[in-house]
Amino acid sequence: MIASIKKWWPRSWRQFWTTLDGRTYHVLLHARPWIGWLAVGMMVATFALVFWWVPLESIQGYPQKIFYIHVPSAWLMYSAFAVVFVASVMYLWQRTQLWDIFARCAAEIGFLFCSLTLVTGMLWGSPIWGKPWVWDARLTSSFILWLIYMGYLLFRMLARSDIEVGRIAAVIGIIGFLDVPIIHLSVQWWRTLHPLPVVMIAENPGGGLPASMLITLLVALTSFSLVFVYLLTQRVWQERTIENLGLLEAILDRKAEHAT
Amino acid sequence: MVDVSRQYGSLFALDQVSFSMEAGDFLVIVGPNGAGKTTLVRTLARLARPSSGTVRLSGEDWLSAPAERQVEVGVVSHATFLYDGLSAFENLVFYATLYGVEDPERSARKALEEAELGGLSDRRAGTLSRGQAQRLSIARSALHDPRVLLLDEPYAGLDPHATSRLGIALGRLRSAGRAIVLTTHDLARVPTAVTHYLVLVAGKVADAGEWSTLAEGELSDRYSRAVARTE
Amino acid sequence: MTGLRSAVAIIAKDVRLEARRVENLATMAIFAVLVVVVFVFAGDPTPEDLSRLGPGALWVSLLFAGAIGFQRWFAQEERNGALQGLLLTPVDRGALFIGKWVGATLFLLAIEIVLVPAASMLYDLNLGAVWPKLTLVMVVVTIGYAALGTFFAAIAAHTTAGQLLLPVLLFPLSVPILLSGAGASQQLMTGDGTAYWDWVGLAAAFDVIFGTVCTMTFEYVITE
């Protein structure tokens, strides 16, 4: 155990950066089964808490419980984008394939959670607003983030094969991430100038969440985060395996060619 | 003094290609389509990076040299890099400015004279014939007096008359301090000023040597044999 | 500073090329006006609605004109492989971006000079008192939009469906300046006035942030 930690520990500051991707991947891969089981357990706990422990919200009733999926999803769509940002920056700096893999897998999963955020947002809002969509600031910002994710993924799909896709995708990721807070701000300003008649109620009118809701929310956040990490590890492992297979194929082809 | 030696395997488009040149050399690289000639030129011009290998210019590593040193290379391709809407003169002035040439207008005028395009200096580049455009492109590539000149299939699309005029223009480009690399798949249109040859087939160097050692028509024999070997 | 010299040379070249084919810019201006016209037919606004709809239609039109323009102004580097020619020179990639960025800004402004008077007439907008402030906000927003537009035109050129991908990438990211422009002009029209400077400030910050980021990262986007 000590030996493997020693092997994992970087030898110098420079080496810290050049091997960060490999070591992160290594740690994630080893922890994957633990993370998986823990995620399952916590999801079950979340389910139990949401339906059997947390009190019913007085004004909104049952639909309010979507809050416990909606908020963690939103947290994850932003976190995933942060991962995309970090992986993109690291890719441009270190130029290792693994960073590119991290970026695109995080983008895929982030897109998933962003879609989930939008859908749960609409499901939650329908009974309250009476219609599926309103131009609420948060929903609007989430939608724009969804479009940015989509653009990023579309670019990767439509890029010509002879270019270094990862490099340009990394730039898109960086610019997108830098833009998100500005988009948020501008949409919020926009909405305060013309406020909506009915605002999404997440907290008590008195301000602040009651303790039981807060605890449930934290449990939900943790379980969703674990799911995210698990999914990311799985995807990255998958992509890495595919790339390694491709490399092996190319090497074998070349050997066959040289033999003749 | 130009001294280049490299090996790369980039998409295995180039497989351990290695050669060296001296200032004043005129190397012709012949090979069939898809042999990797364009990839080689692009790598030498630093438009593309090889997956492995080095290129050295005067003993220094070329691929990681700062961007300002790009001025030591001139490139001609079958694309002319010209702006159709600008006149021949304006095109040259533009590139001269970008290359940091002193007094771009005078250099442009001089280059036009030398390329025998003086009468066309105010003609829009889009109205020039293919041969004239190529000669203009060559003038563009030499504006900044590069030490290395790379020509990638410059004869593409030229009729015999334009070809011979191009050959004359190339001959004038030879100078003591300059190395020239020319790629072509057409053995019949190799300029007479050539000093070395290299046969590139399927990304590998199949044959190379000094031009003077070749007998009449021997190049096409060696070429056919090299191509046949890889099939 | 050779970077500056090169950027100026690029701007001059683009302006010269565009001026020689004025019909290109003119057609784009007509397109922009047409969008504004189409809005009237599609929305069928009452005379009271008109002046409320006007600024919105104006910005939408600019957005679309830009989406088409950025792709065109960058594509002219693709003909005859001129882009490669540029990359072969020692020109700094950031200077190259700035040159194309300023050019795109100038062209969009030229279109606006036609578009804004036309729209103000068609939508019965009373620009008399507010036109200096409107001009300011249009200039600031155009600068930011042109930065992202030029940048993503270069990115979209690497794809098989470049003309389609450009708006898909560009529009969501341009939401802040679009909102700034629309918000500021709304403030001017309805006479409220207080938030106008907030919006202009946001747009200016956007310009600075993304102008810098795009200039610094252009080299990653442009090399093949």
Structure description:
The complex is a heterotrimer of chains A (260), B (231) and C (224). Chain A is built from eight helices and no strands. By secondary structure, chain A is mainly alpha-helical. The longest helix of chain A has 49 residues, at 211-259. The mean pLDDT of chain A is 86. Chain B has 231 residues and is of the alpha/beta class. Chain B is built from six helices and eight strands, in the order E-H-E-E-E-H-H-H-E-H-E-E-E-H. Chain B has helices at 37-44, 88-98, 104-114, 130-142, 160-173, 218-229, and strands at residues 26-30, 56-57, 60-61, 73-76, 148-152, 179-184, 196-201, 204-210. The termini of chain B are far apart. Chain C is built from nine helices and no strands. Classes of the chains: A mainly alpha (260), B alpha/beta (231), C mainly alpha (224). Chains in contact: A-C, B-C. Chain A binds chain C through residues 92, 144, 147-148, 150-151, 154-155, 158-160, 162-163, 167-168, 170-172, 174-176, 178-179, 182-183, 185-187, 189-190, 193, and chain C through 148, 151, 155, 158-161, 165, 168-169, 171-173, 175-176, 179-180, 183, 195, 198-199, 202, 205-206, 209-210, 213-214, 217, 220-221, 224.
Quickly describe the structure.
Chain B is of the alpha/beta class.
Note the main attributes of this structure.
heterotrimer, A: 260 residues, mainly alpha, 8 helices, globular, B: 231 residues, alpha/beta, six-stranded mixed β-sheet, two-stranded antiparallel sheet, 8 strands, 16% strand
List the helices and strands and how they pair.
The complex is a heterotrimer of chains A (260), B (231) and C (224).
Chain A: H1 2-8, H2 13-18, H3 20-53, H4 67-94, H5 97-129, H6 137-158, H7 165-193, H8 211-259
Helix pairs in contact in A: 3-8, 4-5, 4-7, 4-8, 5-6, 5-8, 6-7
Chain B: E1 26-30, H1 37-44, E2 56-57, E3 60-61, E4 73-76, H2 88-98, H3 104-114, H4 130-142, E5 148-152, H5 160-173, E6 179-184, E7 196-201, E8 204-210, H6 218-229
Parallel strand pairs in B: 1-6, 1-7, 4-5, 5-6
Antiparallel strand pairs in B: 2-3, 7-8
Helix pairs in contact in B: 2-3, 3-4, 4-5
Chain C: H1 2-20, H2 22-43, H3 47-75, H4 82-88, H5 93-122, H6 131-156, H7 162-173, H8 175-190, H9 196-222
